[in-house]
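Hello Y.,

Per our agreement to keep a running log of every chain we model this quarter, I'm adding this entry. I've kept the format consistent with earlier entries: sequence first, then predicted structure.
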Amino acid sequence: MAAALDPAIKSRIAALPCWRGPIEVAPLPGGMTNRNLLVRDGGGNYVARLGEDIPVHGVLRFNELAASRAAHQAGLSPEVIYAGAGVMILRYIDGQTLSPEEIRDPARLDALIELLHRCHREVPRLLRGPVLAFNVFHVVRDYAATLRERASRHVPILDDLLRRLVLLEEQVGAVDIVFGHNDLLASNLIDDGRRLWLIDWDYAGFGAALFDLGGLASNNGFSPEHEHVMLERYFGRAPDADLCRRFAAMKCASLLREATWSMVSEITSRVEGVDFAAYTQENLQRFEAAWIVLDD
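Predicted structure for the entry above:
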């Protein structure tokens, strides 16, 4: 498990009071808002998540910790072993991170819907202490303000994007409030061969079920047919025209959030090896494609 690692980081991890004897530490791939490490001690394997608050993205670690603990109690996420300033230690899940192609497998849909139902309905019953709310329309407006303040190269297109955001908000209308994960990328789902796990609760908060559904579809390339079946399974009824319209608007909003998240990351992120400019362009193109469908 040997790998190049900053000795100061290893010393920091080794000094935590949760270990049973000497540890081995190696980097884990992935993570756009955290540094993730695999840690092994005499008691097993663990994931160390290193990350401070990121106010510009609404990531506050007290909220992530509360959501992670409640999600574990609900049977969705690994156990939190230790939490301290800028660090969280969780049990390691021995499984395979999913790809968008695997997410789209119709055989997985029932398990995904069950996961979402438990996140939305059971996690809020188990939460302790203060937690955040997540409103995609506020998030995008706040990103736009940050981009203007920091003279982003994307400022010339913000007025048009915000104009369309208002139309999307009107199309979505009133929503039922659930506790959402709000970052349903394939990389946040793990299959251990028996069940699915949902990880990384950085953006969790009370908000709209439609946002998680829209994010699941948009992040993983669902076809219109797959979206229709997903809505039917989630709501327990065939989606009518009104629900389909509201879902399509929220899917557009989720893509706009992803694009503006990346715009802000272009000028604020210290994560190495990520081409945020390319990710921005990819999500703007996907937003425009979804907008054309919605506008029809």
